[in-house]
Amino acid sequence: MRAHRGETPLKVGSPQQQAMLAVLLLRPGYSASATDLISALWGEEPPSAAMTTVRTYAWRWRKMLDAGDPGAEEEGARSGQGGRPASSVLVSMGDGYRLVLPKLAVDSAQAESLAAEAERIARIDPLRARDLLNQALELWQGEPLTGIPGPFAERHRQRLEELRLTLLEERIGLDLALGRHSRCIPELTSLTTEHPLHERAYGLLMRALYQAGRQADALAVYRGARQLFLAELGVAPGAELDQLHRRILEGDPALAAPEPGPAARQGPVSGAGGEAAAAPVRAEGPETGAVPGGAGDGASADGAGGRDPAGSRADAAGTSGAREEGDGRDGRDGTAAARPAAAPPRPAQLPPDAADFTGRTAPVRVLCEALGAPSAQALVIASVVGMGGVGKTALALHVAHQVREFYPDGQLYVDLRGSDPVPADPEAVLSGFLVALGVSGDAVPDGLDARSALFRSVVDGRRLLLVLDNAKDAAQIRPLLPGAVGCAVLTTGRTRPAGCPPPSRSTWTCSSPPRRWPCSAAPSARSGWPPSGRRRSTSWWPADICRWRCGSWPPGSRPGRAGRWRR
């Protein structure tokens, strides 16, 4: 605690004496009763001489605060108190005391006043609001109430530290809105180290890193914060941080950094969340359609340079279209427009459709009906089940190509190798999916559950088609299922994947075993060709050739067409 009369510093006495004045300074109206003072200094177990001690402190403070004050001496002379002047600063009020001070005589009150003014003008003039917050933060000179005892001082130490953190985060949020992200990163890194459980600081750091083009580092900050919260508190970060994480993954254009400069003054700013300022509104000229700029831009040149009206209209139309599509800056007036973020990738991983696909009219129709209209209520899952080699993959790919237009955000495909001795690992499959959807390899978390949760977050709001070919069982499929409505999953496998989450509608198309060709005399693998006792001119000969050559598969099936002579 420090006190001044004008430019002259005053002695503040012992810590206990300072504690009494701190109570009066920080209470509304600068007043407190004797009971309040005793409770604030000693809590529930005050000493027996507490009242006497308070009176002694009050006498010392009056002597110190009124020393050299001619107004107090004149008041004392009028009151007939002789040489003992009445105090003009610390006055009695019942059994307590009140300080007679200007409203903003205490630096904490001044800081709160500056913060209120900054909040009022933040959306009108963010640069001025930022300067006001800086002035408020400069009033802190070390830890407040250092060394002052008592429960009242301890409570207000915590309150003033929280106020400082709040003002600091507000100021950093305005810095980010003004395009000063590079300056904020070191400060935020230090802030998250000093206050590791302060969630909002992590969000500001993630935003600053993303605006600096360091998306992987921003996602790494989220992973570190999430692991810390789970380890220390047993809970995951709040919804606000989770939403920011998802927006960074999706490349939300609203998170892009505005251009630094005077134009940033005009954009509205969210003081609480540090949102980026919106691009200033720019009106088009009534005649030429040109976009007028600020001082020093090329607006006047357009009017005086002899440009034809048609060219001006075409130029303005192109500029307007660029702004509507988020293609960056205007290019003529130097005013910051909303900087676009890269559009999220649209994977197209479907293998080519079979050019010679024929038949299976009914299964194709049923599957296309199920997948061609994505549900608005739940995930759609359709499956093709049958023994190996009957054409499940060909059917699934043919249907996927038929309905791909209903899933404009992309199509994902994977062979899960369910019939192999070592099936595909869902964790590795999710890593591939995430990278295909635009997640940096460094940002892919470890562990099946973490990757599955991140995958669901990334695909939320998108319309994707997933083809999970040759699946082994439900345990392999479940982690790969998106949680978003509007997506669809088409699986193939030799068995039905029982145990998957119940979809809104599910179509199971089971292929029956291939029909054998009727033959009167089936050739044996051990027999020669032609069979003994037969002549080539008999009617069974073409059927026997097909059966032997195609390995008992129908000639129209892919294994049948790919069959080889056994001899």
From TrEMBL:
Comp. bias intervals (Gly residues): 291-308
> Which ranges are annotated Basic and acidic residues under compositional bias?
322-333
Q: Which PROSITE patterns match?
A: OMPR_PHOB (PS51755)
Which organism is the protein's source? Answer: Streptomyces roseicoloratus
Composition-biased stretches, type Low complexity, lie in 253-290, 309-318
Q: Which family does it belong to?
A: Belongs to the AfsR/DnrI/RedD regulatory family.
Which part of the chain engages DNA, per the record? 1-101
Record InterPro entries = AfsR-DnrI-RedD_regulator (IPR051677), BTAD (IPR005158), OmpR/PhoB-type_DNA-bd (IPR001867), P-loop_NTPase (IPR027417), Sig_transdc_resp-reg_C-effctor (IPR016032), TPR-like_helical_dom_sf (IPR011990), WH-like_DNA-bd_sf (IPR036388)
Protein known as: BTAD domain-containing putative transcriptional regulator
Q: Where is the OmpR/PhoB-type domain?
A: 1-101
Q: Which domain of life is it from?
A: Bacteria
CDD domains according to UniProt: BTAD
Q: Which UniProt keywords apply?
A: DNA-binding, Transcription, Transcription regulation, Two-component regulatory system
Q: Which Pfam families match?
A: BTAD
| Region (Disordered) residue spans | 253-357
